[in-house]
Design a protein that fits this description.
The chain has 3 helices and 3 strands; from the N terminus they run βββααα. The protein is of the alpha+beta class. The protein has one domain.
């Protein structure tokens, strides 16, 4: 996940392209995603509010 600079949009980085900005790594298991969402770990790491849409996109990957 990347908070792109200068737009501050949250994007999912699959490694296909270089996105500059603040990034956060999330292990590729469903349990990690659930814990990260429950405890707002991604939001705190990126210093941004993470929308429900982003979590839904991550679940489908």
């Amino acid at each position: 996940m990347v908070k792109a600079h200068p737009s501050n949009l949250i994007k999912i980085d699959l490694g296909n392209a270089v996105i500059q900005g603040r990034s956060a790594y999330l292990c590729p298991t469903a349990s990690c995603l659930q814990i990260a969402q429950k405890k707002n770990r991604i939001g705190r790491s990126l210093k941004a509010k993470i929308s429900e849409e982003i979590y839904q996109q991550l679940e489908s990957i």
